[in-house]
Amino acid sequence: MELTKEQVQLLARIYDIEIPDADLENIRRRLCSLLSAMERIEEELGADLDRTEPVPPVYPQENF
Amino acid sequence: MSPDELVYLSAAEQGKLIRTHELSPVGLVRAYLDRIERYDGILRSYITVCADQALEHARQAEKDIGAGRYRGPLHGIPYGVKDQICTKGIRTTLGSKIRAGYLPDHDATVIERLGAAGAILIGKHNLDEWGKGSTVDFMFGRPRNPWNLEHTPSTSSSGSGIASAAGLCSGAIGEDTGGSIRGPAGANGVVGLRPTFGRVSRFGGVMYGWNADTIGPLTRTVEDCALFLAAIAGHDNKDPLTSTRRVPNYTTHLNGDIKGLRFAIVREMTWNEGVHPDVRKGMEEAFEVLRSLGAIIEEISLPLARYAVPLQMLTVDADVASMFPRLLKTRWHDFERGLRARLMTALLTPAAVYSRAMRGRALVRGQILAAFERYDALLSPTNFNPAPRLDDPRETVDQGRDYLEREYFRRITNYPYNVANVPAIAIPAGFSRDGIPISLQIAVRPFAEETVFRIAHAYECATSWHRKHPDLDRVFLEFQRKSQPRSA
Predict the structure, then answer these.
(1) How far is CA B127 from the centre of its chain?
(2) Which of A19, A23, A63 to probe by mutation at the B interface, max B CB count within 10 Å?
(3) CA torsion angle for B282, B285, B291, B297 (degrees, to 10)?
(4) Which of A21, B112, B140, B353 has its CA 20 to 30 A from that of B337?
(5) Do the strands B262-266 and B377-381 form a parallel or antiparallel pair, or are they unpaired?
């Protein structure tokens, strides 16, 4: 997943945030890297993800 | 015994001397305050030192113990706490300009419980900003590794790791979302426990990673870790996600016996290509020690573990970042540059990606929990590399190398256990050729902290790493020598 700096800046408008130029490339690189990683996870595990509930890993009451 | 020897006794040893009136809590607090004054201008483990309050509480402890009102093994024991955890009337800065003046009107539950146990708060520890390990520029001074001041003490409970290792407190309380107790424990050569989520109340901590943040001890010995956990663990009405399970006696099985226990070395978290040769050698030796104690050790592959790094960053980071849009909009430049990049990135995670990544976390957790049906513990190093130099390019924000590849090597040893929310302990396991600590990580099934203490204690008794302490005078001299400009 590759996004341009302009696209990342546009996304930030959702929060009414203007990302300074000095930070923009760093954020762009991080975001692309993470979204690409999720694309790879979907390729490998997509069917398993479909069958798995997104339950947070908290255990107040379970037994082990 | 000299003050410098006294400060390095374990909290358990100090506690016994306090109980028999051979050691005064006032004297012990004074010894730590002297060392903080002597060394912490450079180490920067503390943001706030509560000297007057600590001495007052020490005098009260001495009076109470003298009158027969003894509360237990932590009575009169000085401790520090990561400055992410609220302390009534004592500033709680989160290492941030934005919270520099925040004065809580309440104590966190862990602070209340340690107070009830008679422990004495000596100060608030330095940390990565907001407890999220991305800080490059530290507002309250750059924390340094007490074994070599040119090296990092790891993140984000940096000050808590330093203070325990450098004899600036008897023990510390830190917080671990993605290794923030284990990393600093490993880098500074002390014991650090990430407990099961739900074992210790999060109330009064600034815990925006709501399903991953845990509070736990950093100490010089396993027994001390068990004592501190015993004091803080248990259900709390103020944290509805705390377990109602009984808190066991964590010191009962500290008898060196691990014969017949079955452990598995996690291949993806141990024998990765990027493992430093000194860490590899240290782990091989550590596993041999455990085998010599009668443990049965095999290897296991947990292939989904490698996804824990992006899955955590796409979920927990987004949970944390969701608390900051307004502040990022109005005070962008008051956030440290590493942190603001991390938060903004997480804010831009699409909701559907977050949801899919939560499903991924459940899959990874399932694989790890299944491993505990066959094994009593999982083994790996705490970090792939000994704590790097502060000027190492890995420690700076902007990299040509792929961001996630770099984060993977930093976090793969820790993240699988936080994604799975299982307890994991880091214990000293030797030193690199450069004299930087190496650490072994042991993980167990949820709520089996007494098992992890049993294993870690057995290893500790069979080795002597926990008795080694940094020679701060020598380390400081070396640092000064290297810092001096060369004469023309």
Answers:
(1) 11
(2) A23
(3) 50
(4) B353
(5) parallel
Phi first, then psi: give them for residue B438, nearest 5 degrees: -120, 150
Query: In the numeric block, which tokens belong to residue B360?
Result: 């991924």
Neighbours of B57 (CB within 10 A): 22
Task: Enter the DSSP assignment of B305.
Answer: G
8 A C-beta contact, residue B55 and residue B30: yes
Question: From CA B459, how far away is CA B429, in angstroms rounded?
Answer: 9
Hey, what amino acid is at B180?
S
- Of the candidates B435, B442, B434, B431, the one whose C-alpha atom is nearest the C-alpha of residue B465 is B431
- Phi, psi for residue B483 in degrees, rounded to 5: -80, -15
CA distance B9 to chain A (A): 36
Report how far residue B3's alpha carbon sits from residue B24's, in angstroms, rounded to the nearest whole number.
12
Distance CA B11, CA B28 (A): 11
Rounded distance between C-alpha atoms, residue B488 and residue B486, angstroms: 6
In this prediction, residue B360 has a pLDDT band, given cuts at 50, 70 and 90, of very high
Alpha helix segments (H runs only) across B121-188:
158-165, 182-188
Rounded-to-integer distance, Cα B129 and Cα B108, Å:
19
Distance (Å, whole) CA A9 – CA B116: 51
Q: Is B454 helix (H, G, I), strand (E, B) or coil?
A: helix
pLDDT tens digits, B294-320: 999 999 999 999 999 999 999 999 999
Q: Which residues pair with B82 in a beta bridge?
A: B125
Q: Which helix (H) or strand (E) holds B47?
A: strand B46-49
Alpha-carbon distance B91 to B190, whole Å? 27
d(CA B229, CA B216): 7
> Looking at the annotation, which residues of B are catalytic?
82, 156, 180
Identify the H or E element spanning B360.
Answer: helix B351-371
**Residues 6 or more apart whose Cβ sits within 8 Å of residue A57:** B197, B211, B212, B361, B362, B365, B419, B420, B421
CB within 8 Å: A34 and B310: yes
Q: Are B359 and A56 within 8 A, CB to CB? A: no
β-partners of residue B380 are B441
Give ipTM to 2 decimals.
Answer: 0.95
Work out the minimum CA distance from B310 to partner chain A, whole angstroms: 6
Our CA angle for B470, B476, B481, nearest 5°, is: 135
Treating both helix axes as pointing N-terminal to C-terminal, what angle do A21-50 and B403-411 enclose, rounded to 10 degrees? 70
For residue B156, is the peptide bond before it cis, meaning its omega torsion is within 30 degrees of 0?
yes
- What is the average per-residue pLDDT within B246-267? 95
* pLDDT tens by residue, B172-222: 999 999 999 999 999 999 999 999 999 999 999 998 988 899 999 999 999
Q: How many of the other CB atoms lie within 10 Å of CB of B483?
A: 9
**Amino acid sitting at position B59:** R
If one counts every other C-beta atom within 10 angstroms of the C-beta of residue B27, the result is 14
